[in-house]
Amino acid sequence: MFQTLIARLLPMFPESFIWKFSKKYIAGKDLQDLKVAALKEKAKGAFTTVDLLGEEIHSMNQAHDFYNQYLELITVLSKNDLEVNVSIKPSMFGLKMDKAACYELYENIIEAVSNYPTGFVRIDMEDSSYTSMEIELYEHLLKRYPRNVGLVIQAYLYRSHKDVMDLMDKYPNLSLNFRLCKGIYIERKEVAYQDRQEVRESYLRILKSILSYGGFVGIATHDSWLVDHTLDWIRANNILKSQYEFQCLCGVKEGLKVDLLAQGEKERVYIPFGIHWFAYSTRRLKENPKMVNDIIKAFFSFS
Ligand SMILES: Cc1cc2nc3c(=O)[nH]c(=O)nc-3n(C[C@H](O)[C@H](O)[C@H](O)COP(=O)(O)OP(=O)(O)OC[C@H]3O[C@@H](n4cnc5c(N)ncnc54)[C@H](O)[C@@H]3O)c2cc1C
Fold first, then answer.
1. Domain that holds residue 234
2. Which of 115, 259, 90, 242 shows the shortest CA–CA distance to 177?
3. Which residue, of 46, 122, 153, 262, is most buried by count of CB atoms within 10 Å of its CB?
């Protein structure tokens, strides 16, 4: 209740206040900030994926604007010897507004990243009203660019295990690349597990299925229980290092990242940046008021 209230009130606070705690989780507002943050992660031995912040668009002109900014981002990453790995939300490219145009924008971006040795585009997963459309988008792109595109799977959705199995059965000769996360959006009990332990069990079930089938998983969680269980299973089953990596959000549980790197695990940091940081921060809080605790903690720990 308190968390929800704080999350609702936050948009009324001055931007400078919101920025005080948001900056830990966001590289900054422009490409220069992004470059500095990504190079810092690289120096620590981590890989990165970059997300240009943006909200739901109202016209395809906005989608084209985001598209052009992604092209600039790709140039900056390559010029600075950073891996060309980006994450894109289909709503920013107008998936619900103009499907054909959205597909074309994704294709053009993937063409651009495929000029680089490990160039990669991750389709971020949004709320459950998007799930089927985003899987369809992935299948479309996968057929043309099997090495350069991956999808996010949300463990809290009941449908996710079947979605993954269906994709692996349909494309047995392609190495499918998933990022597996719990899911950030508030979903109804009709579509998603609500219980923390049930989400964890679903997570492990999906993870084991993908790895047993020879697919790739970006293990995107900060939940130490899940990380420990995942590592135990991976080691007991001699899963190849080339089949997985850990992924985390910029500024979250730095200690866990350091531990995993020290154990010789590969870690990729998700770095959001851009002028839409304010809407992003407050929207994420409204979607998941539980984050307020972490943010309040973060606020007091570095103010
Ligand atoms: C690389 C990456 C990409 C993601 N992409 C997507 C996506 O495309 N679609 C989607 O729906 N979700 C995405 N998520 C979010 C994900 O679904 C979860 O909501 C989020 O990671 C929290 O779940 P958790 O597994 O870390 O476990 P939790 O149990 O939620 O968190 C474990 C602990 O980590 C810390 N923590 C977790 N999140 C935060 C935070 N934001 N701020 C501060 N501390 C935090 C807290 O200490 C918490 O106790 C992504 C997450 C990561 C790491």
1. 27-273
2. 242
3. 153
In short, whether 248's Cβ falls inside 6 Å of ligand 1 is: yes
Nearest CA to ligand 1 atom 19: 184
Q: How far is residue 119 from each of residues 86, 127, 193, 293, measured CA to CA in Å?
A: 8, 26, 34, 36
Which residue of 154, 179, 182 sits with most ligand 1 atoms within 8 Å of its CB, as the best mutation to test the pocket? 182
Give the model's pLDDT for residue 126.
95
Residues 6+ positions from 11 with CB-CB distance below 8 Å = 282
| Count of structural domains, the chain | 1
Evaluate whether residue 68 is within a structural domain. Answer: yes
The pLDDT score that the predictor gives to residue 298 is 46
Give the start-end residues of each E strand in the chain: 47-52, 85-88, 120-123, 149-154, 177-181, 216-220, 244-249, 267-273
Burial of 209 (0-12, 13-18, 19+ CB in 10 A): middle
- Quote the ligand 1 centre to 184 CA distance (angstroms): 7
User: Closest residue (by CA) to atom 50 of ligand 1?
Assistant: 181
Whichever domain contains 204, its CATH number is: 3.20.20.220
Compute and round to an integer the Cα radius of gyration of the chain.
18
Residue of 127, 181, 259, 283 best suited for mutating to test ligand 1, as the one with most atoms within 8 Å of CB: 181
The letter for the amino acid at 210 is I
The Å distance, Cα 181 to ligand 1 centre, comes to 7
Q: What residues in the chain have per-residue pLDDT under 50?
A: 298-303
Pocket test for ligand 1, best of 127, 130, 184 (most atoms within 8 A of CB): 184
User: What CA–CA distances, in Å, run from 185 to 70, 82, 91?
Assistant: 24, 30, 14
